[in-house]
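User: I'm writing a tutorial on reading structure tokens. Could you give me a worked example: one chain, its sequence, then its tokens, then a sentence or two explaining what the tokens reveal?
Assistant: Sure. Here is the example chain.
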Amino acid sequence: EEILTSAGLKGTTNILAVNRAEVSRRLQQDARIELISEGYQWPFSYVITLRERNVNAYIPTADGFVAVDRTGKVLQVQRRFSHMSAPIVCGVTLPSLLIGETVSDEGVRTGLLFLVKLNEQGNSDLSELNLENTDAVMGYTLRGTPIALGRLSELEDKAETAAQVLREVEGSGRSVRYMDLKSKVPVVKFN
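And here are its predicted structure tokens:
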């Protein structure tokens, strides 16, 4: 029903009276919606198909935190950080942002791309990505294990290696003290 309201439609709207351009325009203004397709399914239906944006990271701002999707579009603005359903990108503080705006900081965007690629590899064990030192980016797993990732400029290329190492470590059942992915050969120090 929220989608119908957002689109300006009522459940009983005659499908011949639907202004498709207006429906599409209104839905594209909703920050929660990433992809929209709409059209008639003759003889009796008008179908709207959409993909909802997902939170990929939380980033501190001057006013609190923003939840952003994979493209850096702000989905939520929070004064306090209370529930973590995605990693936090720390070491940077963005200016105040509003829902629907897009993060423009290139370092943060590179970090987001790394997180997206890590998730595409089937791994969501990262709880924090620290971008404070662009020559020595650090990640931290949900268990608190530090991961040295190296230079921010090389971060995107390390997602596949990071996902593979995290899967292997998790599958080993052993406790890990530290992971170093700065060089081409990953180093894992077990407890």
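What the tokens reveal: Residues 74 and 98 are 7 Å apart (CA to CA). The two ends are 52 Å apart (CA to CA).
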